[in-house]
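quick q for whoever's on today - can somebody do inverse folding on this one?? i tried earlier but teh output was garbage lol. tokens:
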């Protein structure tokens, strides 16, 4: 039983490629995704492995040991890996940090094919403590602060105190002790002050007042002395900003987060080095024959911004040091070019004498310009412009008298000095004014410019054009923000007139001639608006050809690009992949549309990650994506890419705090074999995609001509099915269910039949699936429920009391918000008591949307309606889920009954009956066809049976006579 359920739960995660399958590498991280050290190692591993010629398949798992260091965590991880990699051959294991190495050593022989282990991020002590180094190698995380201290002493020989920052975790304490012991071995007379007993706030406060003979050395830091979890990047940045002395670090992920520098351990280099060892092992070398790498993961690096902050010149750094964030230097970059230009200037000295004449001319022009500037200043002072000013230290505003004259307020009347002026800004203009102001203050514009309306004391709005500039201190802080405001209400009126019509422009020509200066200004504004209009048109074109949610090109872009490719490459080769996310509508229904939209965005990003550079990706609509692979070189390449897509989407998606597993169904159409037009290729790829879904989802199908016939037949069935209820083509037959204890009839299961005047009798196995895909199952399902309940009520009215009716329910019906209300309404309309109705739900439906469906069925069960779990044993539910289901009956699938003559299946069927009874459930056996099967089920105390041994499905008109005949017999 367990083996069967495991096989169903964890199918093969990828379609095997032709020839040798790719090798598999399991990357096991000790800590969580998002932890900087872990992410750096992971980036280095994936970058090296994916860049290899024969790149292996990468599987990644996180132990999250920092946040959950418990045996329960280890037990759950053990169960997860055991089940998840049951059918995957792991060729190598890469572990990061000690917890992952310990887990891999303990369980690799049991659940991971005894694969070789390559460790990363383990210090020398941890490596020495490995009891059995068989088939193990890796990269040592050699924590050596001595080089960092030597570099610090070279920069500042007066250092006497070292403040060491580490936390009180097991790894933090050991790292802190190791660092202080190694520095002490230098015998430099340095004093060590550990800060692990302080909270993060106390540490920041202490380092802000350190003397110049001190430095801060920060190791790892995950929680402070109060046990509070601290985000490393945030704390490191705050520490660097607050410290009065340089903050040296041990690891390079602190760079750009307040780290001054030092001899830093690089997680990314460690990850790349361990991945290189893994590739050598995958190529045939043995792990225990490869020496452990101990000296290749160090960077001697400093942050240029921090050097500037503490006034340390570059020439004081140790020779060969790396400097990051260093500004671009034209001379150093183009030194040869600069020297060449200087030589060219020497040749041109002869022309300088000629230019002296023009220098004198420029001086005369400059004198005239100064006179002009004086005139401009006098004119500005003499104008009616408003002068405003803000003291950025107190945020007190000042406005000149012109502002009060224009608006009619008295000074202090609206508390304008403390920001009250914002209350009179027009609501439609306030947001833009604030954005433009913030943009300038943040340094993203050279000056502040905005136009907005202010409400005068009379209630009228006056348009102002405001300009200004902020004055900054040497350290980049704000000192003063000042500028001017001009009443442009008249100009705005003219703008409105310009927009009315060209005829109005002609009628006011004489007036505009008198205002030539203003017309020129308006013309400049029109030119500016034209530029804005052009930018807007470009934006709308982008929106027309790109999907708003994912940013990928949309259906229109696909149609044009595919048509252009066909026209330009009549003899070319291409493949079209039509990709659909399996069960996406259930994710939307259960997790919400916002969650579904985030998943679609992640799916688009995953497609781009899997691209080889020749692909174009499109979002076709809903949960459908299309990939155009150009210049295809044979069928094998198409299949390889399809398998990489299926494999790529088997990796989980991280959404918020959830890890979501999905699969995709892919239909493939080749150009020109499967179509010579965009419409034909899209149609055939879509048909192949539907065929992939019918094949079991999570796979791909290449289009074949026979699929068109199948698709056409499906469309014909759907067309006629739409009118089946209206044309009275549907009917019900009823198969009896018998109580094995008393031999009496318990009730009947309603089975739908369709007799089409065009298609004849159509099997339910064919049309029910089609009805679910096109949602016709909703009206059909309600029709079946209503007709079956009415029939049973009429049968009871004829004297056949106590009989029950069992009706099958589709997952599409169950996902409707009003499903429970619909069932209760049918019972009320037909007059059937709830205890005589049983709803049959297949096991797989529950597992697809467990919580949503359970919440709808529980109220129905409370009303007395029976809930039967159909086809039990063929699905993949666990006993823990079974206890939580709102069911009253288990129905053993016919496949178990057909083969009870074998000991294993007989024992399995008997176990299902026992499980059901132990859980307080009734058990019904389906497909009973022989006396021997009946005898076995009676011995196992199975409650009810149905099958051809009792009776075939009976037409509605014959049910009463069949009951009478059985009673007589």
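ok took a stab at it. sequence:
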């Amino acid at each position: 039983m367990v083996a069967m359920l495991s096989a169903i739960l964890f199918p093969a995660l990828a379609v095997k490629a032709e020839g040798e399958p790719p090798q598999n590498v399991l990357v096991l991280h000790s800590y969580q995704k998002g932890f900087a050290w872990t992410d750096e190692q992971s980036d280095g591993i994936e970058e090296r492995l994916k860049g290899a010629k024969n790149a292996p398949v990468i599987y990644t798992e996180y132990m999250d040991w920092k946040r959950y260091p418990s045996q329960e965590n280890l037990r759950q991880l053990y169960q997860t890996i055991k089940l998840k990699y049951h059918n995957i051959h792991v060729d190598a294991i890469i572990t990061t940090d000690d917890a992952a190495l310990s887990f891999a050593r303990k369980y690799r022989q049991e659940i991971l094919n005894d694969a070789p282990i390559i460790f990363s991020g383990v210090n020398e002590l941890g490596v020495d403590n490995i009891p059995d180094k068989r088939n193990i190698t890796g990269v040592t995380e050699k924590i050596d602060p001595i080089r960092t201290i030597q570099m610090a002493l070279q920069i500042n020989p007066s250092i006497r105190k070292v403040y060491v920052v580490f936390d009180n975790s097991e790894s933090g304490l050991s790292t802190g002790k190791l660092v202080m012991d190694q520095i002490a071995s230098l015998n430099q007379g340095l004093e060590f002050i550990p800060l692990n007993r302080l909270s993060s706030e106390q540490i920041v406060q202490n380092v802000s007042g350190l003397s110049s003979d001190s430095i801060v050395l920060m190791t790892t830091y995950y929680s402070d002395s109060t046990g509070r979890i601290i985000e490393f990047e945030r704390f490191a940045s705050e520490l660097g900003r607050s410290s009065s002395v340089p903050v040296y670090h041990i690891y390079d992920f602190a760079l750009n987060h307040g780290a001054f520098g030092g001899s830093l351990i690089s997680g990314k280099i460690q990850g790349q080095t361990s991945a290189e060892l893994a590739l050598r092992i995958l190529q045939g070398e043995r792990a225990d024959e490869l020496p452990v790498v101990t000296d290749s993961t160090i960077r001697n690096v400093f942050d240029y911004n921090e050097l500037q902050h503490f006034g340390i010149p570059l020439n004081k750094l140790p020779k060969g040091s790396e400097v990051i964030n260093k500004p671009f230097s034209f001379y150093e970059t183009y030194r040869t070019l600069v020297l060449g230009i200087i030589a060219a200037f020497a040749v041109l000295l002869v022309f300088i004498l000629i230019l002296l004449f023009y220098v004198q001319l420029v001086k005369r022009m400059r004198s005239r310009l100064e006179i002009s500037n004086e005139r401009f200043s006098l004119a500005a002072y003499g104008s009616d412009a408003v002068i405003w000013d803000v003291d950025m230290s107190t945020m007190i505003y000042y406005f000149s008298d012109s502002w009060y004259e224009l608006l009619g307020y008295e000074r202090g009347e609206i508390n304008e000095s403390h920001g009250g002026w914002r209350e009179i800004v027009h609501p439609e203009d306030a947001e833009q004014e604030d954005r433009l102001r913030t943009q300038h203050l943040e340094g993203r514009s050279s000056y502040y410019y905005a136009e907005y309306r202010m409400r005068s004391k009379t209630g009228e709005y006056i348009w102002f054009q405001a300009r200004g500039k902020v004055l900054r201190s040497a350290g980049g802080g704000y000192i003063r923000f000042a500028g001017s405001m001009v009443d442009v209400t008249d100009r705005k009126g003219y703008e409105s007139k310009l927009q009315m019509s060209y005829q109005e422009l002609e009628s006011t020509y004489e007036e505009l001639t008198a205002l030539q200066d203003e017309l020129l200004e308006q013309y400049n504004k029109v030119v500016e608006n034209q530029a804005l209009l052009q930018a807007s048109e470009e934006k709308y074109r982008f929106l027309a050809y790109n999907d708003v949610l994912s940013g990928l090109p949309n259906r229109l872009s696909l149609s044009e690009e595919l048509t252009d490719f066909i026209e330009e490459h009549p003899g070319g080769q291409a493949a079209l992949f039509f990709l659909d996310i399996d069960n996406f509508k259930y994710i939307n229904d259960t997790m919400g549309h916002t969650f579904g939209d985030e998943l679609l965005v992640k799916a688009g990003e995953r497609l781009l990650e899997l691209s080889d550079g020749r692909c174009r990706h499109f979002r076709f609509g809903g949960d459908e994506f299309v990939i155009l692979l150009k210049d295809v070189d044979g069928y094998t390449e198409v299949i390889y890419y399809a398998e990489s897509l299926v494999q790529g989407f088997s990796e989980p998606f991280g959404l918020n705090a959830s890890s979501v597993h999905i699969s995709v169904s892919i239909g493939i159409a080749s150009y020109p074999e499967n179509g010579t037009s965009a419409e034909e290729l899209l149609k055939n790829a879509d048909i192949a995609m539907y065929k992939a879904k019918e094949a079991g989802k999570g796979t791909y199908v290449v289009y074949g001509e026979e699929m068109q016939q199948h698709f056409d037949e499906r469309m014909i069935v759907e067309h006629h099915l739409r009118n089946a209820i209206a044309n009275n083509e549907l009917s019900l037959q009823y198969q009896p269910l018998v109580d094995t204890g008393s031999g009496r009839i318990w009730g009947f299961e309603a089975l739908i039949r369709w007799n089409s005047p065009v298609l004849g009798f159509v099997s339910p196995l064919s049309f029910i699936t089609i009805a679910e895909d096109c949602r016709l199952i909703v009206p059909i399902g309600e029709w079946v429920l209503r007709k079956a309940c009415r029939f049973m009520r009429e049968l009871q009215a004829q004297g056949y009391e106590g009989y029950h009716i069992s009706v099958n329910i589709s997952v599409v019906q169950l996902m409707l918000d009003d499903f429970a209300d619909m069932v209760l309404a049918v019972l009320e309309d037909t007059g059937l008591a709830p205890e005589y109705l049983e709803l049959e739900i297949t096991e797989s439906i529950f597992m697809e949307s467990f919580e949503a469906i359970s919440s709808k069925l529980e109220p129905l069960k409370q009303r007395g309606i029976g809930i039967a779990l159909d086809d039990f044993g063929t699905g993949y539910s666990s006993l823990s889920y079974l206890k939580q289901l709102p069911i009253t009956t288990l129905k053993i699938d016919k496949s178990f009954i057909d083969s009870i003559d074998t000991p294993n299946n007989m024992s399995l069927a008997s176990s299902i009956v026992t499980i059901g009874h132990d859980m307080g459930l009734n058990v019904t056996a389906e497909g009973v066809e022989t006396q021997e099967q009946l005898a076995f089920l009676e011995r196992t105390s199975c409650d009810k049976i149905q099958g051809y041994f009792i009776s075939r499905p009976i037409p509605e008109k014959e049910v009463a006579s069949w009951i009478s005949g059985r009673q007589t017999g």
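fwiw Residues 1-18 have pLDDT under 50 and may be disordered. also The radius of gyration is 39 Å. so keep that in mind when u check it
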